[in-house]
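Board notes (copied after class):
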Amino acid sequence: MDNEISHHQLLRSRLPETVALNQLLIFARLPKAGANKTRLIPALGAQNATLVYRQLVDRTLSQARQLANERGCQATVCYTGGSACEIRAAFGDDLTYSEQVGHSLGDRLQLATKSAFEAGAQRVVVIGTDCPSLTSSDLRTAFEQLEAHDIVIGPAQDGGYYLIGLNAERAPLFADIDWSTSQVLEQTLQKTRKLGLRVHQLRMLPDVDYPEDLLPLRRGADCHLLPFQTAAGKLSVIIPTLNEEMNLQLALDSVGSPSDNLEVIVVDAGSSDHTVEIALRHGCKVFVGNPGRANQMNAGAAIATGAHLLFLHADTRLPTDYHLEVERVLATPVVCGAFPLQIDAPGLALRMVESGVAFRSRLQQMPYGDQALFFRSVDFYAQNGFKRISIMEDYELVARMRKSGSISLASKPVKTSARRWIKRGILRTTILNQMCLIAYRLGFSDQTIARLYRGEPQKQNLK
């Protein structure tokens, strides 16, 4: 902890002199546009990002109130970003409030838990407001497990944690942690092992930091947490890009201009060329997201409002009246659709490649991403979208979808660039694609398969 923290600041962080034996601390910030969920702002805008944050806070506080009523614990909001009066007006009079103090998250966690134990608490559980799947049952389990363990921790899917519970002050757990990274959980667990502490881990849950993290909220009861809803009769075309200025305009021309029934979302991965400017001129919704095609497509789908979703590669052009084909296919009892593939270059060898793709797509029902996969949004959200892997995300999703229903092809083909076949050679590209598929089926990691695809040297431990 920084020694410059004043005595006055320490007093502001203290809880009431007497607290319940079980103390639940909720770390929260005053809802204010531009100050909440800043990593969602590029996709949602400041106002909508704050609306999402407010919904997440309200849901978390609802679970906290339910626990307090059931178990008799005390719920305290450890706040920042506003005055005590503003916080109380925002969150209600039935909770206890304590201002966060400290320069880092570690400082603030350490001071808040220290204050709770000094006031008489025997078990302290700390949560944030980013985890919509957290329930009062999870909180109840955390307190129960503290009766037999020193530490309870709720691991988050991004490598952090959404909950930490303690039965005594443990200042070392909050020092020298790389906060806001994927190393937080492992570094914390390393400290518990070094200290010889008994640890119980709760179920792993997702939290909401980036646009792609909103995807699970599009399912079922959690839809109300978002400031937008699906519109019947609307198609959302989602295009992931990275330095695609040579191809994007042709792809967008084939999509058409955005309208009431057509939404075009371009999710860029940090292009250094004119990709973003081209998308903006076309009238698309554009934002820069985390790199990786799966992340980009999930992020676009998370904010889409169409009842149908179509995922288009930036070097692929859709056929005329493609939207009618999408409607026709999805009006039948299928779970996924795609287009036949036409490669935009002459030559018998490429025609043979197209024939192989047609066989795989029609008879094996395994179209790939360059065939413009499309779905009913409800089906896509039910499957939680693309798996967050660096390659083979299209193959993995189609294989998963195929288990729940049939997959059909449109009658007209998409036309895709021949650049990857020309760059590497048709035979080599075909063999490489098959090697990647075999490696995936054998259980090799997506990082290993991506290195194989890029032609990079492989590490000794391939699995």
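Comment from the instructor: The mean pLDDT is 92. The CA atoms of residues 383 and 401 lie 8 Å apart.
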